[in-house]
Amino acid sequence: MTISADKATPLSGSPRIDRTDAMGSISAMAEAHNNWGRWGEDDVLGTLNFIDAAKRLEAAALVRTGEIFSLSQPFDTNGPQKGWRRRTNPVHTMTDTGVDAERGNQGFPHGFGGADDVIAMPLQCSTQWDGLGHIFDRGKAWNGRAAGDVVTSEGDLVTGIETAAARIATRGVLLDVGRGLAEETGRDDGELPDGFAITVDHLERTMERQGPSSTVRRGDIVIIRTGQYTRARREGWGEYAGGAAPGLSFGTAPWLHASEIAGIATDTWGFEVRPNEFDAAFQPLHQIAIPNLGLFLGEMWDPDALAESCAGDGRYDFLLIAAPLPITGAVGSPVNPIALR
């Protein structure tokens, strides 16, 4: 295994996946790979506990050229959402404009004028973090709490995204799986086909191809480039939001646990492979990762420019700063992740 973890759970002890028994497989995986109580019964940070001062110093030392990359998709009315469960695209409205100022109808003295605007949007409509209150497993939230005690109509009363506002600055590692598996997929465009399930072996082979700088260590945030966003940007959104997509296999759950990463993000709508690998399941890897592992998931990130730079000099690790907005009680947040090389 190309990971470094002091107390890693061995993959050899992982439960077998029965594709005909979604509930049994989810239950077995949750029992075998679970972090409840690891940081105490009052914990609200989950795997962000792996990021400490030493980790931040390690990450800061990776900045050599001063190159900077935003890993965010645009926030505008053009996409990618289609209205699933009331997820819409941002609606941006100007409340004061240059026209108002020019015509003197703003009511300010001495020629003063200005512009103001508002935005209305779901918090998970574009580049975002899933918080620990976003997904439940059989009525339980992160750390074994009753879901109804955590998230109510007033928001996430325990693990609201604001608890992570000053936590997410660490070593980032890009795994460009789209490029790394070109030979296997028969594609030379660096894009995995929709429905492609990324396995632990695929992750390991990508790390081996990329070299030592992509070795994953405790407290890292791993960014997976599948190339699906590259395709959507070229061909149009299509079914990007909720449709078929490349993504992590359910079988990567033991690796997510053993690697002791702080978070993982992808360039896809839903992080895991779609269609999901069980006939009667919805996002089963989410069901393990968030409420059982306490793992922060990023979705709809844009790693393309960063990937070009990394491929150019063979360095795949960098300082990553990806603070969520401290929206009290929110179960997710928009984010503009910044990679510094």
TrEMBL record:
Annotated stretches, region: Disordered: 1-20
Gene3D superfamilies according to UniProt: Putative cyclase (3.50.30.50)
Enzyme class: hydrolase
Xref: Pfam families: Cyclase (PF04199)
EC numbers: 3.5.-.-
Keyword field: Hydrolase
SUPFAM superfamilies recorded: Putative cyclase
Gene Ontology molecular-function annotations: hydrolase activity
Protein name: Cyclase family protein
Biological source species: Arthrobacter burdickii
Upper lineage: Bacteria, Bacillati, Actinomycetota, Actinomycetes, Micrococcales
